[in-house]
Specification:
Blueprint lengths: L1 E6 L16 H12 L6 E6 L11 E4 L5 E4 L6 H16 L18 E5 L9
Parallel strand pairs: 1-2
Antiparallel strand pairs: 1-3, 3-4, 4-5
Length: about 120
Amino acid sequence: MTTITVCTTCRTAGKPERPGEGSGGAALLAEVTSAARAAPGIEVRGVACLMGCDHGCNVAISDAGKMAYVLGRFEPGSADAAAIVDYALRHRESASGVVPYREWPQGVKGHFVARIPPLAHEVRD
């Protein structure tokens, strides 16, 4: 199962937090959860802090035995959420988690922050 992990404490890059207003990350989690409802094999979860504050709003896309990715600089809206879910579906379909650049949705280009290889004991044959 491919998992999209959304940082719930992220602030939208360049926008100060206002008292009583939820974080950009919490809003992005709601948008991604909604966008993923019709996406088979995709799980969405929130986590407090992915430690990518300079790149808020951040998400991680992962699956056991596959390359994992951290992406950032998203806006908490439906267009960015749809692009994240679209990329996660392509990640799910890839045996290694590596999605060729030509298949990346336009909405994730320029948002990659880090790529994390699977642990050696997890690598799929």
